Amino acid sequence: MRLGILDHGHGIRAKAVFALIRIFSRHQVVDAVKLALYRPDFYRGGGVTHEAMRGPSEWSVADRELMAAFVSKVNQTEFCILAHSATSAMAYNDGAKVTATLADLETAPVPEPLRATLRMLGRLTRENSLGADDMREVLAAGVSHQQIKDALAVSFAFNVTDRLADAFDFAVNDPAAINAGASYLLSRGYR
Amino acid sequence: MSDITSRHRALVARVLEGHGKASLAVRRSAFDNSGLDEPTSTLVDKVARHANTITDADIAAVRAAGLSEDQIFEIVVCAAIGQANRQYSSALAAFDAATGGT
């Protein structure tokens, strides 16, 4: 972490939570959790992220975790690519699908509506804007209006989180800690 | 269906209008990625446009300019949310243009 306050500036309650995490997970507290518990009165991204990732949607949890991983891939945010690839792979019970999607979206074994949606999120993340024609392409692939809005919510959440992970320099965890984090995100979400 | 509208609005309002260590004007400028002096403007622009290129030196520069860690934290958060917000607004406008807003 580039700011000492994000490592050591938490209040007593957050520090107690960290101690419990270390005891029960047997892993160090990941930097995303340290950020989430630092001054939540100022920045509390978990509400938006939880609703986008775990709220009711025609997209599965696995699909939305894949969107998070894909957006993070475009942003080249290593911490989030690994965390959400692992979570998506666990949710699909299919790591090969996730790996193939991040390697080459156009040949990946995913349904066309999901492929078109990921393509649109990639463009938005790279170019910072979209036009009506971009949306018409996604609609023509059979994506519903609500699915588009739900995917844009995921994109918003992870275009915030990726920037914070890069700016604050989140440490990349070892595979065991990444998988423990993925299990936690599937059982408890982002709140 | 999931709906982030109210949570999104509250998130933006908290960082722009809530209690903080950086001034409201600086937070707004960071959110907008506009009107900041160096070295803060460089850091904010990197957060907005290529955050994966930020280095320890970028943070050291704003610290050397007199900003506290909490002020840096707030400025970075505002810059990140601002850029994601511009993307999100653009996409929703494109959606409305393509669908008539339904």
Strand-helix topology:
The complex is a heterodimer of chains A (191) and B (102).
Chain A: H1 4-8, H2 12-25, H3 31-36, H4 46-54, H5 61-75, H6 78-92, H7 95-103, H8 112-127, H9 132-140, H10 145-168, H11 175-188
Helix pairs in contact in A: 4-10, 5-6, 5-8, 5-10, 6-7, 6-11, 8-9
Chain B: H1 5-17, H2 24-32, H3 40-49, H4 56-64, H5 69-99
Characterise the protein shown here.
The complex is a heterodimer of chains A (191) and B (102). Chain A is mainly α and 191 residues long. Chain A has one domain: AhpD-like. Chain A is 71% helix and 0% strand. Chain A is built from eleven helices and no strands. The longest helix of chain A is centred in the last third of the chain and has 24 residues. The mean pLDDT of chain A is 95. By secondary structure, chain B is mainly α. Chain B has one domain. Chain B is built from five helices and no strands. The longest helix of chain B is centred in the C-terminal third of the chain and has 31 residues. Chain B is elongated and about 50 Å long. At the A-B interface, helix 1, helix 4, helix 9 and helix 10 of A face helix 1, helix 3 and helix 5 of B.
- Major beta sheet summary of chain B: none
Oligomer: heterodimer
Tally of DSSP helical segments of chain B: 5
Cα Rg of chain A: 17 Å
Attribute tags:
heterodimer; A: 191 residues; mainly alpha; AhpD-like; globular; B: 102 residues; 5 helices; 71% helix; elongated
Summarize the structure.
The complex is a heterodimer of chains A (191) and B (102). Chain A is mainly alpha-helical and 191 residues long.
